[in-house]
Amino acid sequence: MLVASIASSVYLLEHAIWSKTTQGHSREVDVEVFRRWVLEGGTAAAIEDVKEAKEGMKNRIDINFAITFGNNGKARM
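Above: the chain sequence. Below: its structure as tokens.
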């Protein structure tokens, strides 16, 4: 979701820049759409999801180790 949000943000920014350069003046609507997408479109939530997944991975690695080797570090198989 984070990659999709970032890609969408880039496309909206490119459109706002294109609008300004071809129209010769700032298009407030295009800039506002970009601003709202970045601030309210879920980018912050996607960043938090990535942080949680990264933190949860450490716990999963520890559990995988315990499943494979047991809690004392000796192989269970």
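Residues 2-69 form one domain.
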